[in-house]
Amino acid sequence: MTQHPKNISDEEFVAFQNGDSRVFRIIFDNYQATLCRFAYSICKDEGIAQDAVQESFVKLHQNRSKIGGPEAIYPMLFVITKRYLLRVFRRSVVEAKYRDELRNNWNEGCTSTLDELKANDLRSVLEELVDQLPDKQKEIFQLNKLAGYSYEEISDQMGTSKNTVKNQVITASKKIRLHLHRLYHFVFLIFFLGQ
């Protein structure tokens, strides 16, 4: 990590710690591009890189009162970005195991998926992805895929049409699959580029 000079004055730093958005914008402008390049060089995925940098600035703002001085800003952003990428990598390894498990054991009639996930300690991965769905879509997906209810049973229970239920399940499944695909792509790149 190269040494970065403090790009704000001591007065601006105090204003930043007090929540001054103008100074936060200066900090963001100073480091955002550098952090994005660093994150992209690690993960080779622009979306993940941007998420990592965004997370680092959110945490910087949340912990601004704990920063020792202007010269500590960049190291803190750098470490948060690295930790975010490490979490993504670890999660992607777990999701790769989950995908292998699904490939070997999943079929549309399977109602024991939740039990399989518990047994393989992979339930948390699915729950995290499902939690990111909109509320109604999440409820329908959980009733169908995790609790084993049919489209018709869900339709009766929620007072909506069977086609709406089916469309919600299909849309949720596509979103989850797309997210898993992005993470597996990330694992693939790290595995082969890291050798």
From TrEMBL:
The RNA polymerase sigma-70 region domain, residue ranges: 28-91
Keyword vocabulary terms for this entry: Sigma factor, Transcription, Transcription regulation
SUPFAM superfamilies registered for this protein in UniProt: Sigma2 domain of RNA polymerase sigma factors (SSF88946), Sigma3 and sigma4 domains of RNA polymerase sigma factors (SSF88659)
Organism: Sphingobacterium arenae
Pfam families attached to this UniProt entry: Sigma70_r2, Sigma70_r4_2
Ranges for domain RNA polymerase sigma factor 70 region 4 type: 126-169
Protein name: Sigma-70 family RNA polymerase sigma factor
Tree of life domain: Bacteria
Presence of the UniProt keyword Transcription in the record: yes
Protein family according to the UniProt entry: Belongs to the sigma-70 factor family. ECF subfamily.
PANTHER family, sorted: RNA POLYMERASE ECF-TYPE SIGMA FACTO (PTHR43133), RNA POLYMERASE SIGMA-70 FACTOR ECF SUBFAMILY (PTHR43133:SF46)
InterPro entries, A to Z: RNA_pol_sigma-70-like (IPR039425), RNA_pol_sigma-70_dom (IPR014284), RNA_pol_sigma70_r2 (IPR007627), RNA_pol_sigma70_r4_t2 (IPR013249), RNA_pol_sigma_r2 (IPR013325), RNA_pol_sigma_r3/r4-like (IPR013324), WH-like_DNA-bd_sf (IPR036388)
